[in-house]
Amino acid sequence: MLKVRVEVTDEEGTKTTLEKEGDLQIQLLRQMTISDVTKFLETHLSSPALDDYYEGEELTIKERLASFLRFDEKAPKDWFTSSEVKRIYEDVYDEKVGLTTISTYLGNFHSTGILMRKGSRAKRQYRLAATESRDVASAVV
Questions:
Q1: Contacts of residue 102, Cβ cutoff 8 Å, sequence gap at least 6
Q2: Is the N end or the C end of the chain the one with fewer CB atoms within 10 Å?
Q3: Is the pTM of this model over 0.90?
């Protein structure tokens, strides 16, 4: 049995806590715990805290894409396709990235609960999950 406790204190001194308890040897419970902790941190950390954390470090394409989708004003606000994200991302970051790379990361974000998805493979669309917010910090698992 393992207990996980994460506490975040904001600038005003308000503490917010997440506690999970269970047998983390069970794969599904471990994945759910990691996802819950990640979402908790994303919700309760401020964007400046994330900026300070990565200051001086080069972000990966996956990290930049996650941050872009959540915080950038140019990011799609509703349902979007991989092609749309690729085009906008390349404009914003002035960097070429493969469509398969974007599609893979969008699929990863769906698996971890960051994005919702609908449609067949040929017409797949994504959008931020309802629990996600553009004004919270990003953590990529």
A1: 65, 82, 85, 86, 89
A2: N
A3: no
